Amino acid sequence: MATKLLLSFAICRLIVTVGLTVDPSELLRLGVDGQLSVDPFDIETASLDFGLISRSEPMAVLHPGSADDIARLVQAAYLSSQGFTVSARGHGHSINGQAQTNNGVVIEMSGGSRGSRLGLGNLAKQQVAVKEMHVDVWGGELWIDVLRRTLEHGLAPKSWTDYLYLSVGGTLSNGGISGQAFNHGPQISNVYELDVVTGKGELMTCSEEKNSKLFHAVLGGLGQFGIITRARIALEPAPQRVRWIRVLYSNFSTFTGDQEYLISMHGKPSTLKFDYVEGFVIVDEGLINNWRSSFFSPRNPVKISSVGANGGVLYCLEITKNYDESTGDTIDQEVEALMKNLNFIPSTVFTTDLPYTDFLDRVHRAELKLRAKGLWEVPHPWLNLFVPRSRIADLDRGVFKGILGNNKTSGPILIYPMNKNKWDQRSSVVTPDEDVFYLVALLRSALDNGEETQSLEYLTDQNGKILRFCDDAGIKVKQYLPHYTTREEWMDHFGDKWDRFYQRKMEFDPRRILATGQRIFNPSSGSTSTVSPW
Ligand SMILES: Cc1cc2nc3c(=O)[nH]c(=O)nc-3n(C[C@H](O)[C@H](O)[C@H](O)COP(=O)(O)OP(=O)(O)OC[C@H]3O[C@@H](n4cnc5c(N)ncnc54)[C@H](O)[C@@H]3O)c2cc1C
Ligand SMILES: *[C@@H]1O[C@H](CO)[C@@H](O)[C@H](O)[C@H]1NC(C)=O
Ligand SMILES: *[C@@H]1O[C@H](CO)[C@@H](O)[C@H](O)[C@H]1NC(C)=O
User: Fold this and answer.
1) Which residues form the FAD-binding PCMH-type domain (predicted)?
2) pTM of the predicted model as reported, rounded to 2 decimal places
């Protein structure tokens, strides 16, 4: 009864504000299994994201009860004469409003403010196929819950993000990367099959063999072609423990040389390679006490001055080796042998040993600490760049030692290389045109603490300077988790893949009603799909 009332209310608001001309009784007959809500708290949650930089209010929020709910809603939007926009929202961890939509409907794939997530509630519905080594999960499932479920069978996904409180559909719409990507490829390279609700409201199953065009379009597709309701994810036997090592460098080319050597071992037997390769830049001593660096202290204090970084910039290589109790005897020798080939500063080896799940969930522990200090729910003007290998030294000179200067940085600056051959060129994601490219991630928080260099304005301006520097120097970077606002910028981002991206859009979301928060296409208000998307 309450649901019915809420629903009618929601429909009234939709009709009034977006001129939705679908017959209300027809929409009522959609009879969603979940809940269509206009609760101010739901609206507020869906208006915001982790970035806390942009804000856009939807008309209503759908808490879906099933994939069919999503299909019914998108179909109603597609068929309505005025049209209205629909955006899937995973865990709302975008930076620039990518999951928001003004006056449309946001679908809370991971539960939003209600806490009771469809995915979590239906945890038992995650189907783990032990023999086939894959798991079927709801599109709004958080990776942490996928891990918990698969571990019950001694299995785990192969490719990760650093942080696990992200939704499967959200990371698959971007790429999904971490230190395993050099070896296994990004998360989009570790998916066998998807169920997708297209912009026409059709629920389709797709894979390499079946509806392959949709499959490749959706992976890294920024939510433009459909809403992922189910994903079949590749699994491997879960390791039990992790040897986690950090070593320091003061010479950038030595640092990247070692990183590139380590990722070149991707095809080799597991005894000859590490399982995870990342790294970060330490531009000021303050960073040592930063959210990712609790590693060094208090038992492992590091003084930058003591390791002789005259320019004030240090580089930390972060590597791990997985092992099981059964191979526990040989792990020391294996790691030692692998480390012999590296050229870090002697005496700067920091080692930790921990259960596999604790390693994967490491950023969440940092989150809890930051939350306790009120430092989590602050603006995050993050910038993620894919940089071609041949120009990475220019970023060191121009950005780490240049634009960033000696400014205090409130957040990590990650840097690690990946192998392009692990990225399927048929997917929608774009990467630089070189066999090896780096992620450079400036994951900084804006703080209102009186320090000019930590303010949102300063950091935003600095991001602009970094992008202009790359442009002026002819460094062909690609933004990861891209944020652009004009057609020219988006066409430039996609380069020679733009035509394909555009064709796929016209085929799968001809009215351009999905994920408008990405600001790539404008929705068409007329009932025909021939209206110009600009
Ligand atoms: C603390 C933190 C750490 C992070 N670490 C990493 C990392 O290590 N590696 C990495 O690759 N990324 C990382 N990210 C970025 C993350 O992958 C993106 O924010 C991504 O969007 C996932 O977040 P989400 O599930 O909250 O998606 P949302 O922000 O909710 O959505 C992102 C986009 O995907 C669309 N979308 C959401 N769900 C679906 C769906 N089911 N089907 C189709 N489209 C959908 C939305 O409309 C939107 O356009 C991190 C982000 C944060 C905040
Ligand atoms: C860094 O190492 C390279 C080669 O190993 C060397 O040529 C270069 O001079 C070093 N740079 C600095 C600043 O010491
Ligand atoms: C921040 O870095 C810039 C660029 O090097 C420098 O000009 C400026 O003085 C720095 N500001 C502070 C407060 O350190």
Assistant:
1) 54-238
2) 0.93
